[in-house]
Amino acid sequence: MIEAVGLTKRFGAKTAVDQLSFQVRPGHVTGFLGPNGSGKSTTMRMILGLDRPTSGHVTINGRPFRELPNAQRHVGALLDAKAVHGGRRARTHLLALAQLSGIPEKRVDEVLGVVGLQDVARQRTKAFSLGMGQRLGIAAALLGDPQVLLFDEPVNGLDPEGILWVRNLMRQLAAEGRTVFVSSHLMSEMALTADHLIVIGRGRLLADMGVQEFIAHNSAGFARVRVADSDRLGAQALGEALVKAGGQVLKEPDGALRVTGLTLPHVSDLAHEAGVRLWELSPHRASLEEAYMRLTQSAVEYTSTEDPRAELFEPEPLTVPAWEDEGAHQVSGPTAAAFYAPPPPGAAGAQPFLMPSRPGDLAGTATDPEDPR
Ligand SMILES: Nc1ncnc2c1ncn2[C@@H]1O[C@H](COP(=O)(O)OP(=O)(O)OP(=O)(O)O)[C@@H](O)[C@H]1O
């Protein structure tokens, strides 16, 4: 287990990591998420004794990394796949690491096989692609058959087959009871790989919870409702009825309506009353990416500005739902331009999750009666 308590790191005036406390438990893949510059690498470096905390502490199985006897047998890490002597052959690189830790030579060939580099084991690493470098870094992390593994962006540069392989490897390592702590910016991948998430922004803890719980807390559910394609009048009538009943309605590109603020049975009843034939009525949960964007939007340090050249182009006319055109009812909530964005904080069904001020006191977790699920 990895345990951080009040972990803080300042570089001059910059606070890279700010009072972080968390535990990374064995038997799970724990994803470590945060925007660029939020302090993930600095945290991992402190876990591995490469950076000294300004205050607080972090331990692995109860001891600081530097106090672990033969640490490579307990902890394996991939921090920077490029941190390899390019003139060395892959096997020689691993052999040198093994000899430093008293790991037998046959283990080198084992891990080369595990990561699929056995055929290029005698090539110099400077000729390696980014993906091959990642595999070599993972091999180095596995050398000591450690109980605790840290991976900083392990799928960076890997092709789809490689990404799938890393996902299966992480899950297998966790299933063997190991502690697996992995950072990534690939949300779709994290959703498939991680069981638990630790999310930070500007060095501070934003969330520490299971993946499904994280998505549920940081996204608004909505219903997708689609009228028979040929029934344009029906779609309009239903749209009006939904808005009149207090729903927030947006039109999706495929013609379906995205409805927040009404339960599925209520939407079904309104369709029935309007005599409208439905082709779809389904609950929708946001993706991990949507939930993550929503939680971290105020913690992003580097945001882009509009490209001024965009003014050279004519803006696309907005597609406004027919019932809004006619002014029958006002569609409230997000604008038509934000069809795929989750509703902003404060909109129906949208309670961003905040870390509790006291343990056990969860803020923003009240169930929303208007959630359509
Ligand atoms: N050695 C250092 N000296 C000064 N500032 C540093 C140093 N290392 C990191 N920082 C700063 O600390 C902050 C956190 O950096 P860190 O690399 O830990 O973030 P990160 O979450 O890993 O980012 P990314 O996702 O882009 O890899 C950044 O603002 C960075 O510039």
UniProtKB/TrEMBL annotation:
Q: Which InterPro entries match?
A: AAA+_ATPase, ABC_transporter-like_ATP-bd, P-loop_NTPase
For this protein, the record's Pfam families field holds: ABC_tran (PF00005)
Q: Listed GO molecular functions?
A: ATP binding
- Keywords assigned: ATP-binding, Nucleotide-binding, Transport
Native source species = Streptomyces antimicrobicus
What is the superkingdom listed in this entry's lineage? Bacteria
Region Disordered: start and end of each range?
A: 326-373
* Family note: Belongs to the ABC transporter superfamily.
Q: What is this protein identified as?
A: ABC transporter ATP-binding protein
> Does the entry feature the keyword Nucleotide-binding, yes or no?
yes
Q: Which CDD domains match?
A: ABC_BcrA_bacitracin_resist (cd03268)
**Which intervals hold domain ABC transporter?**
2-227
Has keyword RNA-binding? no
